[in-house]
Amino acid sequence: MKALARALEEKLDKNVDRLFKKSEQKPKLNVNQVQNTIGIKLDSLSKLLKLYPYDTHGQLQQPLKPLSEKEVEAVHVICPASMECQTITCSHHSILLETRDRDVPEVTLIKNMKIYNRVHVLSGKCPTCGTVYYGDHESSQQNGMEGGRSKFYLNFAKYLKVGQSLWVDRIFSGAVINGTYSFHASSASFAEFFGMIPFGQLRKII
Predict the structure, then answer these.
(1) Please, are residues 44 and 51 in contact by the beta-carbon 8 Å criterion?
(2) Cα atoms found within 13 Å of the Cα of residue 30, Cβ hemisphere only
(3) Concatenated DSSP letters for 116-152?
(4) Largest Cα–Cα distance of the chain, in whole Å?
(5) Nearest CA to 34 among 53, 52, 49, 19?
(6) How far apart, in whole angstroms, are the C-alpha atoms of residue 48 and residue 143?
(7) In the predicted structure, residue 26 carries a pLDDT above the cut 70
(8) What is the Cα Rg of the chain in Å?
């Protein structure tokens, strides 16, 4: 527990003060006392979360089961980067959800070389000018073309759509491009490495 407290103190660095109440007067404690105090807090937290394997007499009841990261991982949603319409004529009008909740598409997202399934993709539409905002591009009515629309892909987009139901982040797309052009790796080798990604979709990144 003390080793965990020391690692937590090093991780938080200057923010370690947030673990202490004003009455505990953390600045007056030496290094050993700081780690002991953090250890006591961690011990109390483990008991509160029922992650303490011992009874009141200090006897081991049963080893702790491994925790699944999937239960505590973040929920990802791909949405437009803009929160308001960017056209000059709309004067920063708010954008509204373009599709109904039941029609929001669910896709596969590759982020930090990890695959996330059933990620919701949201798109917004300005009710004034009709400009549609997506996670990686914007679509607006083109002047002089009846019914025609123009697309503007965003250089600062966090995620890129590379298939019918596949989105990737810049780390993955950059790795594929660098691996292909610098190390002559094939798109098939990337698809084989990840297993779940269809070969045809992965080729669209290159």
Answers:
(1) no
(2) 1
(3) EEEEEE--EE-TTT--EE-SSEEEEEPTT-TT-EEEE
(4) 82
(5) 19
(6) 63
(7) no
(8) 25
